[in-house]
Design goal:
The complex is a heterodimer of chains A (93) and B (630). Chain A is built from three helices and no strands. Chain A has 93 residues and is mostly helical. In chain A, helix 1 packs antiparallel against helix 2 (21-46) and helix 2 packs antiparallel against helix 3. Chain B is mainly alpha-helical. The N and C termini of chain B lie far apart (91 Å). The chains are: A mainly alpha (93), B mainly alpha (630). Chains A and B meet through helix 1 of A and helix 25 and helix 26 of B.
Chain lengths: 93, 630
Amino acid sequence: MGLSLALFAIGLLGLIVRRNLLVMLMCMELMLNGVNLSLVTFAQRSATLDGAVMVFLSFIVAASEIAIAIPIVLLLVRRRRTLDAGAFNELKG
Amino acid sequence: MSNLLAWIVLLPLAGFVINGVLGTRLGGRRVGPGVVGLLACALPLLSFALTVVCFAQLAASGAPRIEASYTWAEIGGRRLEIGFWFDRLSAVMTLVVTGVGSLIHIYSTGYMKGDDGHARYFAYLNLFLFFMLLLVLGRSLLVMFVGWEGVGLASYLLIGFWFDDPAKAAAGKKAFVTNRIGDAGFLLGMFLLWHAFGTLDIDRINAGLAGGVPAAMSASLVGVLLFIGACGKSAQIPLHVWLPDAMAGPTPVSALIHAATMVTAGIYLVARMSPLYLQAPEASQLIAAVGVATAFFAATIAVVQTDIKKVLAYSTVSQLGLMFVALGVGAYAVAIFHVVTHAFFKACLFLGSGSVIHALGGEQDIRKMGGLARRIPVTFGTFAVATAAIAGIPPLAGFFSKDEILWFAFASSRGGAVWLWALATLTALLTAFYMFRLLWLTFFGASRMDPKVEHHVHESPPSMTGVLAVLALLSAVGGFIPVAHYLEAMLPLPELQPARQSLQGLLVGVAVVVGFAGLAGAAWLYGGDGSRARAMGERFAGLHRVLSGKYYVDEFYEAVLGRPLRWLSDRVLLKFGDRTLIDGTLHGLAATARGAAGVFGALQSGSLQRYALYVVLGLLAALAWSLRHV
């Protein structure tokens, strides 16, 4: 539990603090895996399969999310030649 | 032909369409003024001829002619039909409308020659005739109402005919708005009748009324409401203010619409609905009282007016008042009789005044006339005959009809009273006085004209003087047409009060004396150099001012209705309602949106990290909320 909480917190911190898009994506994965870990732990403790099933679900969601996110990042990089998230702020109010 | 009546009505409409489309500037003036004039006169004349044919048939068969042409609408099994109805009453009215109308069309060809809006004028005139015939011949109150509104429209168009003069356009608007007030009453009365009878056909309503008033309505209420409508159209107190201003229109229009035909529509309505008024004594009393009040006040105003057409306008209001007196005491046939004779002599007077104005190149102030008798003899002769007729000098037309009104105002068992008679007789005296004053100031004495104007004085063309001669002849002998007797079969005269029957001879004598007294009074005051009249005016300066100001009715309306309305529209509706409430709400909404956009726009910083932080904060908030509530 402690590990999963730590993983989640590190991922969140990284997401908020870092400006590199790829690093931010990796941090998100970190958070997801933190949650997965906690789910597995819960499943272990309660001796049911529910948590494990949820983990598979979130794996699939994470995989498809990355599959979409990486091409988007690629396109953005191709346009701006940078990985800095602050460079993409034309839509700000 | 089976639908003669429809033809009578539709022929002038054809004239309107053809002249309006082909002759006006709008239509590119495809036909010349000669054709327009010919067409505009020929179609009403044809209508008149058809009316005579119908009249002959009516006289032969005795049965009214009813044509139901078209079902307009069917509401819950009740039908609204466009039908025409030709009985004795509408026969008389149709003859007057088409006859006098045709004469005035002919006169107009001379009067309006060379005017820029020649074709437009005749198109309007034909349109008016169409609506007037619709009004008179309509079998249903609804058809009548369409005609009623239509003549109002035509009147508005013709009063404001020279619309580039703002005063004239304003006069047109005033007439229109004042008429609307009356129309509201007419409409409400119609609703009540529809509610009670399920039909608006006048013959059916009258047949229903013969069996007593249905419980669903109050005869007096309906009577008063319809009378309000009649007040608007026939210029009775308190809705009389529009008619004098309506003199802004071309003079033949004043003759046709504002003296001979349209303004008598109110009389016609009341006479048409006479079975209703026979059951509504309160409404009848109101009519008589309003009529006599209007007659008297208008006559006093006419005494001091200086515009030749205004004198005639107030005289018309006054004569209409007398007709309402006759209606109020149940002498419906007599009122129609006066309508007919009044149409003759008032049309003659107006057209005569038109001829004078024409001769003087537009001058309307009788203080700047005088001595015209020898310069324009035909106009003078016809004008004098018509003046004598309206003043009630026997044996001219006005004497007979006015005398009968006075007699019934005195002796009718349906509300005849001494005070009605006394006021009406006083009105007759004033009428004789101001009409001879008009005659004197215009035609006798020394000339007070501008030398420039005087140089150009000329008699009018034969198309005008011919019409004047015909109308003068009719004014002279019109009293011998037994209109009242002819209508008696349909509109029986009221019973007389037995105690007063023996006094008829005396009253006739009084009426004759009154006519001549007016003549003598005017001759004494305005004969000579006019110093007596001036002295009189100075002695009663206050009264003179009040009369010249027309009792300040316009000013009163302005203060009581006009100004509060303007204040209301300006302050409450415009400044508060429109600017503050509606605009303010919209502006407020826009400002809120803009402010909110500023706040939320600041959130939209473009920094992904901050977005992520927001998400986390949002999640935490959601968590906290669910922890507390679940």
